[in-house]
Amino acid sequence: MIRKLLIANRGEIAVRIAKTCRELGIEVVAVHSSADRDSEVVRLADIAVNIGPPAPRRSYLNIPNIVEAALQTGADAIHPGYGFLSEDPDFAEICESAGLIFIGPPPSVMQDMGNKATARGLMHKAGLPMLPGVVEPVRSVRDGQEIAADIGYPVIIKAAAGGGGRGMSVVHSEADFSDAYVSTREVARAVFNDPAVYVERYLAGARHVEVQVLCDQHGNGVFLGERDCSLQRRHQKLLEEAPAAHMTVAQRERLGALAVHGALSVGYTGAGTMEFLVDGSGEPYFMEMNARIQVEHPVTEMLTGIDLIREQILIADGLPLAFGQQDVRCSGAAIECRINAEDPARGFAPTPGRLDVYRAPAGPWTRLDTGYREGDQVSPHYDSLLGKLIVWAPTRDQAMSRMDRALAEMAVDGPGLSTTATLHRALLRHPDFRADRHDIQFLDRVMPSLL
Ligand code: ADP
């Protein structure tokens, strides 16, 4: 049984994990960089260990220091959160060989799902629907152009090791292929340390719909509904909601079943997300699998009443799922807005600094997951996510009104600080978003008119 858990992360997700540990009676070990010594998770933890200077490479990505902290404090498990080391199979393996439970899927499954081209191949074998494309890395410009001509333009060139919306280029014609290929490989090499890229059809006007799955170590899997994450800026999510109300119930149930089948077919365990693109008629195409907890998991928690961090811990403990698919009830509608310290008017440039004013909204079915308190510094070393505002209501319309009310209550201020809160309010009022008619290009298209 897990009695003491080390959280190898920071910010809101570290706090989120700590809270569930408390409820389960599990002791919390927080690790932090010197920039985060007064952070919220440090205040909440039973034990806090400084693992290095602010630069992530020297602290939150520093495997020896993290494993050492776990061994010295007597932790028996490590939760990696999202980002940082959460998708690093070497880290998972090192934890396991040090006798620590890594909260996530087996390292080999992580490795396969971490490479989008490999994941595509495995899910294709499992019978999941795919956009036309290849699984082997493209060998040369000529090779890529031949593949693209076969698939038909537009295509998207993607870094196999990519993530966070980076390492992707849309190509509309053969003339543009060469430049896009060279620049995507450059980004892939520089950011992901692996230049391999592959090509698939670019689906214009699509929606991003993802399915939350939970698989235990005994071959049982369930899905907890889906989330629509079509509201994106440059391929990065900004607002997420559930359910994907533009799909029929039958389409959503089929999608959920496909997701569970795909996850079980690769031996997945724990909480995972199967991401799909969905076209105008509701047809899904597998895109990638994220082998970790997602930023937007609270949307699913609000819809189902299931604590996903708790389930992750119980599964890692070896317990079978305590419920089956027929026990999962999704009700109402939930929305999450990412409140980032960014200036939407300046291309979403980060605005780090001191939080002189930071007041959370409250009220019925209103939740703020955050790692910050008033007076804290937002460090330029880490991502700009201040907090996630999540609401639930019986209908999508009511959830939007509730979110608007909550956003209006939220007060954030500091020298030079901007947030995405005002943009969210404008989006909630946009007729296309209100009518659920938006797609993944919507935000980039309407941004100029919202500023
Ligand atoms: P990442 O791992 O970087 O988040 P994803 O593969 O999940 O990358 O893709 C991120 C986003 O890029 C998707 O949500 C979607 O908006 C867009 N995208 C990816 N592949 C395609 C495609 N084939 N057609 C259209 N849009 C795509």
From TrEMBL:
InterPro entries: ATP-grasp (IPR011761), BC-like_N (IPR005481), Biotin_carboxylase_complex (IPR050856), Biotin_carboxylation_dom (IPR011764), Biotin_COase_C (IPR005482), CPAse_ATP-bd (IPR005479), PreATP-grasp_dom_sf (IPR016185), Rudment_hybrid_motif (IPR011054). PANTHER family: CARBOXYLASE:PYRUVATE/ACETYL-COA/PROPIONYL-COA CARBOXYLASE, METHYLCROTONOYL-COA CARBOXYLASE SUBUNIT ALPHA, MITOCHONDRIAL-RELATED. Residues 1-448 form the Biotin carboxylation domain. NCBIfam families: PRK08591.1 (NF006367). The gene is accC. Keywords: ATP-binding, Biotin, Ligase, Nucleotide-binding. Gene3D superfamilies: ATP-grasp fold, B domain (3.30.470.20). SUPFAM superfamilies: Glutathione synthetase ATP-binding domain-like (SSF56059), PreATP-grasp domain (SSF52440), Rudiment single hybrid motif (SSF51246). The keyword Ligase applies. Its EC number is 6.3.4.14. It comes from Microbacterium deminutum. Pfam families: Biotin_carb_C, Biotin_carb_N, CPSase_L_D2. This is biotin carboxylase. Residues 120-317 form the ATP-grasp domain.
